[in-house]
Amino acid sequence: MSSQENSEENLPAGQGTAHDAAHGGGTAVAQHDDPFADPGLPAHKPRIQDIDERAAKRSERTVALMFTLSMLATIGFIASFVIFPIDKNIYVWPIGLVGALNLSLGLTLGLALFLIGAGAVHWARTLMSDVEVADDRHPIEAAPEVKAKVLSDFADGARESALGRRKLIRNTMFGALAMVPLSGVVLLRELGPLPEDKLRKTLWAKGKLLINMNTNEPLRPEDVVVGSLTFVKPEGLEESNHNFNNEIAKAAVMIVRIQPEEIKDKRELEWSHEGIVAYSKICTHVGCPVSLYEQQTHHVLCPCHQSTFDLSDGARVIFGPAGHPLPQLRIGVNAEGNLEALGDFEEPVGPAFWERG
C-alpha cells in the first residue's frame, strides 16, 4: 500500500481528499500543518423542481406569467400617453393631488422592469442549475485551455438554463425584453412638443380688445398719455387659464404714445392710432421681457443683455445683441371707443428660430 493511500486512510472519518472537495464531494481539510483549512463544499441538496417535473412546470408558468405581465405593463405605459392629458390631476391617498400621466408612467414602467427582474430571479432560483463548483485561481492571460474551458462552461450554462427546452420561458422573456425599449422610444416624443406653427401665431386676432394687465379692463385711447408705458394682453386670456404662461409669453404687448410727428417709420405710423403704437414685449434676443422705457428718446431697453430698440423708428435695434426689431401689432378703435387689434403679428415674436422665413 502506498504512502499516499496510507495518508488517506489515516484521515478522520467524514473527511475526503482535496480532489473530492473540488468535485462537490464531502468536506475537505488541508494537511494538519496547514493553518488555513479548506472547509470544502456542502453536499448538494436537490430542489423540488429537480425531482418533480410538475413543480418545474409550475415554476416555468410562473416565470412566463411575470414576463407576460411585463409586456402588458409596457403596453400600459404606451397607452398612458394617449389616455391621460398632461394637465389631469387625480387624488391619491395619502400623497394628495398628483399628475395622472406621471403616476401612470411611473407605475407601468416600474412594474415592467420589476417583473422582468423578478422573473429572471425566480427562473435562476428554481430551474437553473444550483450546483456549486470550486475553481482554482488561474493566471490572467487567456491560455488556449482557458478559452476552451470558457466555451465549455458557456455551453454547460446554456444547457443547464434549459433555455432551449423551456420554450415558453424563452419566448415570453424575448417578448418582454423586446417590448421594454419601446418605452424609451415613446419617451423621445416627450422631449418637447412639436412646434408646428405655434411659434408663428399668438392669440391676437382682428377685433381682439387690448386689455390693461393692471386693471383687467379694455384700454381706451384717452387712457394712454404721451410718455407712458402700458402693458396689455389679448381679450379672453385670463391668469386662471391652464395655458396662460405659454400664451402670454407670445402675446405680451407694450403700448406707448408718441407724438405722430416724432414717428419716423411710415408703416409704424400707419399701424398706430393717433400716435399710440403697440409692440411685442418679448425681446428678440433670448426672449426676456422688455420693460425699461426712456420717455425723451423713445428707446426701450431689455434688462437682460441691454438690447435697445427705438420705438419711434419701427423698434429697430440700436444697441445690443438682438438680431431684429420688435414685431409691431396693428391696432385701431372699435365702435365703443376701445383699442382693438386689427390682426395678429405679421412675423414671429421673440427670439429668432431656424424656421424664420
Report on this structure:
This protein is of the alpha+beta class and 357 residues long. It contains 9 helices and 13 strands. The chain has helices spanning 3-9, 18-22, 48-51, 53-83, 100-126, 144-160, 167-189, 244-251, 266-270, and strands spanning 89-92, 96-99, 210-212, 229-234, 253-257, 276-280, 292-294, 299-301, 308-310, 316-319, 328-329, 331-333, 339-341. The strands form 4 sheets. A 5-stranded antiparallel β-sheet has the order 3-4-5-6-11. It has a 4-stranded antiparallel β-sheet with strand order 7-8-9-10, with no helix packed on it. The chain has a two-stranded antiparallel sheet with strand order 1-2. Helix 4 packs parallel to helix 7. The longest helix has 31 residues, at 53-83. Mean pLDDT is 85; it is low at 1-30.
Properties at a glance:
5-stranded antiparallel beta sheet, 9 helices, disordered N terminus, 4-stranded antiparallel beta sheet, alpha+beta, 357 residues
Task: Write a brief caption for the model.
The protein is built from nine helices and 13 strands. It has 357 residues and is an alpha+beta fold.
